[in-house]
Fold these 2 entries.
Entry 1:
Amino acid sequence: MKRRILQWKQIFKEKSRKRYRRRFLLYISCVFLALVFWFLNILNKSHRFELNTILQFTNIPGDKALSIKENRTVSFTVEGSGWNLLRSKLLSFSDTLTIDYRSIRGKDEIDLNKLLLDFESQWSRKMKIMNVYPTKLDIIVEKKRIKKVPIEAILNLSFADGYDLSSKVNWYPDSIYITGPLEYINSIKSIKTIPLILQNLNASKSIELPIDFNKYPNINSSIKSIKLNIPVEHYTEGLMDIAISQRNESAGILTFPSKCKVSYKVALSNFHKVIPQSFKIIAEYDRNLSNRLKLKLISKPNSVKDIQLTPETVEYIILKR
């Protein structure tokens, strides 16, 4: 009898658990659907929000350069649906707006309030502009200047264990011609790319890297990006015994030991190209040492790095002549 009662209790508990799970899942589903409908309702409503965008000018005569005294970034207060707000936050609705130079020819000031309808049309009329700041821009149109400047690649690289650059990072082109107003051209010594961050590299990379022209208002170039080559290779450690020399071989100095162990890291492809004759180590006096000479590496292959000398100092005797 007790066994049957226990069996019924177990059955009741299992049924209760299943009933609780169903009710809990139903509750969670209802909450989720309520949140979805609430979110959709919010997105369908009209909202006001801020958009920052950069102004670009089109149809500028080939021999002219246009510059803006203020920043080219303009702030808009716009009204649109929640969908447009979401799109502007996630996808950068439009990071540039264009102004046709022909519509402002002969002017030294642009009234942005008169261009609001044109800006709205560039956003496909999906948003209404309520306010713009600044409302006016002072412009200068002058003869275009040209200058050749080097390109500086902004890189932040890290490598997987045992890997490193096998040679210098190179890019093409390494310099470009820029055009713009004289005042801006003269202030630019080099042009930088957008920052590139690569981590745990274990293979060579070829990347097209854009030039960051947003940092250089009023400057133009036909070249917009560079081809970046990052040579990466697996490194190994090498070890050699190198004879110790003196700066003045006629000084009659004998060192103990007469050889130095040189450890280094080298790319696998260059491992067999490293020979003892590529290194030169000399022993020289150091005022901070007593009865010892300091070892100094004065010649090494370009392909090796992280060189260590063992020992770093040696004993010596001066031979009588």
Entry 2:
Amino acid sequence: MELQGKVHQIFETETKGEKNFKTKRIIIDRTTEYQGVRRENYTEVQFSAANVEIVENLQLKPGDVLKCNFDINGRFYPKNGETKYFQTVTAWNPTVISRS
């Protein structure tokens, strides 16, 4: 699948675990207007491994228009008698469409 929108926020690269696995989160503004009604839509995508270096080399800034491919990964775990669910939007193949 493909996603495109304006870069809203860029988080610092995070390093996790003993193997120093790198991730980078970016918030993409995909807000639209339909029949005069504004529908805000901010999507967090996460780049990992080799894609972190690609994103860093793009030198993104808020307002840049970014296109990328993505997968939605969901997991669950039991906690205190409840089952918790969460999803991650894992992105790859980032391309800058325009600069701000």
